[in-house]
Amino acid sequence: MKIKIYHLYPDAMNLYGDWGNILAIQKRCEWRQIQTEIIEVKVGENYNFDDADIFFLGGGQDRGQILISKDLGLKGKQIKEAIEKDTVALTICGGYQLFGKHFKTANGTEIPGISVFDAWTEASTERMIGNVLVDCRATTSNWENMHRFGLVEKMHATLVGFENHSGKTHLGNNAKPLGHIIRGYGNDGTGNFEGCQYRNAFGTYLHGSLLPKNPWFTDHIILLALRHRYGSDSELPQLDDAIEIAAHNEAKERVYTAKTVHI
Amino acid sequence: MRKFFAILIGKLIITITRITRRGGGSALPGLVALKIDPKLVSKITERLSNGPVIITGTNGKTTTAKYLSEILKASGLKVIANGSGSNMLRGIASTLIERSSLFGRPKGDIGLFEIDEATMPEATANINPKYILVTNLFRDQLDRYGELDKTATIIASSLKGLKGINVILNADDPLVASLSNQVDRASKVTYFGLDENRYLTSSKASFDSKDCILCGRELNFSKRYYAHLGEYSCSNCDFKRPYPDYIASGISLNGIKEARVNFSNQKNVISATLKLSGLYNIYNALGAYSLSETIGIADALTQGVLENVSAAFGRMEKIEFKGKEIYLLLIKNPIGFTQVIETLSTDGNAKNFLICLNDNFADGTDVSWIWDADLETLNNDFNSIICSGTRSHDMTLRLKYADLDTSKIETIEDSVTALSKALDKLGAKETLYILPTYTAMLEIRKYLTKEGAVAGFWEEQK
Q1: Which tens digit of pLDDT belongs to each residue from B423-452?
Q2: How far apart are CA B255 and CA A62, in angstroms?
Q3: B370 to chain A: closest CA residue
Q4: What's the gap in Å between the CA of B143 and the closest CA on chain A?
Q5: What is the rounded end-to-end Cα distance, in angstroms, of chain A?
Q6: Which residue ranges form the domains of chain A, and what is each CATH number?
Q7: Domains recognised in chain B with CATH numbers
Q8: Which residues does B contribute to its contact with A (CB < 8 Å)?
Q9: Tens-digit pLDDT profile for residues A138-161
């Protein structure tokens, strides 16, 4: 078995260990004898996304984000078509913002996104930095995978990560968040919602790296990708996640015990 | 009068913290004194006859400063330097208070200050620098400073309008080299860089700055030493690596033990065998060499000192403890971590490691940087690894995903417990390599000091 991952603009959009997410998908596939093919998508080149199982877009500096936004606009229609056909997408921070409708910069310029998510982002002067704990029980209740692995009981369906953004993302009426914030700023700094999901596309502000410490979410992404390629009877064998769960719990604890300093 | 009271109170606090043994008393005296006289630092530094030297950048500040400090001392100059990580303005104020008379006359000829990138605007406005050296710009503690481009912008703004000073830049780092555009014409810019073909990398780890900072297009690298340090030119505009005035060449690394290198100023060459190995330490020695040439110190003297300097506080420091050999190697960002591992591997021996990952403020509260370090190169070429610290499990997880054999990896949250365990497990003639983040290094050093292995760090600064 094999899944194909399109890593969008790894050169410009690779901040805060976001590469660790690709590594997590790759290793958790490898440990189950599933092959992964990773294609690095570059500005100015053309691709056929028909065979994409997963898109990944990480966070970037402002410079990187401006550099790729135009090119992403050109590829947007193709990416959206693939997502309508249940291709999986994971987008982090700056990548998440560009998968929304637009990003309004501090001087009022609107950088258009590709509108996968019914969400839009505006710049703020506040920097939202710190450990985050997200409750995904309600927002993932329709994910079969959760019950299949008994993960609701084991991990309490939480996501742990680290946010570092000044953009505030607002969800539209049709948007569904990825989870509810237990600790942290979240999408818009109010501490209500974190991230967004549409079909098999996910957006979030969580670095960390996100996927290694949240193996249940990684497996959900892999399973969706397998089903996209091989049909709905695809299964994932269980792995020994003792180290992952220990790191998850440690991060969860640091959400409460780490001192946060604001400057 | 303000100045007098500020210094008096500062000196009192230093004495009290020393007596009560509440740490080295690094920041507090300066913090209080600056509240009393905000211009205190400027008032003292303007009276330094050879002016202050500022060293900034992500990696190598402390070691470069240590090299230079020893060179200056050997040349007969009295040096006033900050150290041990207290490189915010209040830390510098503390140092100056300690090293000046009650009337603000400095007890030294030249100042040598390591400055955090984010503190640069405040520092250049207060310190009256005569020399500024920028080592490199990598991703470091991004949660504190924002992003790498922003760090470059902050340093750039700190250089604007400074007249009559010497700015010494790393030619091999495009972000640093581009800072020359900000330097006033009434100041002088020189560059240092490597000329090397033996130690090149194609690793993508920490290849942070691949685009031209001037026009945003891709940079073409004809050589890369590590990360984004190398020889480059822009694919679009005329930005390219400036030809360095000070060059390190003929490099040969022998594990962690030593490194051979030639330094030249395009006229004379000096050959040195350094006690500190690794390309990143060659850059540190080269930076110190460039500064000593700029200040006008004789080659023979510089050469002798470069060969004799051993590690700065916690950076590749060798410690004997209970008959066992320990190396302390500070890790604080992906490129530093990767370089430490790469340098260690040049001697080909399997090693025992203790990695201590903390996520306190001084370490950087975001630990995602460990995922950007190229730890795959450890490649099972180790006997044992113990991971400890407030993010010990995260560290173990990183190693699992680097495909290392997890049966040889143990997780012990408390750093001191982990250290005892690691030493117990150590066989005869084996060495323990400790890789701690900043606050973990302080914990370990505090323990080793208590056990009589190393001197208290504030005693070392004198």
Answers
A1: 998 887 889 999 999 999 999 988 998 888
A2: 39
A3: A17
A4: 7
A5: 49
A6: 2-257 (3.40.50.880)
A7: 44-308 (3.40.1190.10), 315-460 (3.90.190.20)
A8: 139, 142-144, 146-150, 210-211, 216, 218, 359-361, 365-372, 390-394, 396-398, 400-401, 403, 406, 411
A9: 888 777 666 555 555 555 689 999
Using a CB-CB cut-off of 8 Å, the residues of chain B touching A258 are: 359-360, 365, 390
φ and ψ at residue B373, rounded to 5 degrees: -80, 145
**Interchain contact, B394 vs A250, CB within 8 Å:** yes
Instruction: Find, in chain B, the residue whose alpha carbon is nearest to that of A67.
Output: B216
Q: Do A209 and B216 touch (CB under 8 A)?
A: no
How would you write the pLDDT of chain A (263 residues) with one tens digit per residue? 999 999 999 877 877 788 899 999 999 999 999 999 999 999 889 999 999 999 999 988 777 787 789 999 999 999 999 999 999 999 999 999 999 999 998 888 888 999 999 999 999 988 899 999 999 988 887 776 665 555 555 556 899 999 999 999 999 998 999 999 999 999 999 999 999 999 999 999 999 999 999 999 999 999 999 999 998 788 888 899 999 999 999 999 999 888 655 43
Q: Which residue of A has its CA nearest to B375?
A: A20
**Is B366 considered catalytic here?**
yes
At A121, list the tokens. Answer: 């982002």
Nearest to B366 among A11, A162, A246 (CB): A162
Question: Which residue has 């699992």 as its token pair?
Answer: B400
Is B234 annotated as contributing to ligand binding? yes
Query: Which of the two residues, B170 and B152, has the higher pLDDT score?
Result: B170
Among the partner residues B142, B359, B371, nearest to A164 by beta-carbon distance: B142
The pTM assigned to this predicted structure is 0.78
Distance CA B159, CA B161 (A): 6
Complex-level ipTM = 0.95
Provide DSSP, B374-427: -GGGGTT-EEEEEEESTTHHHHHHHHHHTT--GGGEEE-SSHHHHHHHHHHHPP
Mutate which of B139, B142, B143 to test chain A, going by most A C-beta atoms within 10 A? B143
> Of B109, B120, B58, B49, which Cα lies nearest the Cα of B287?
B58
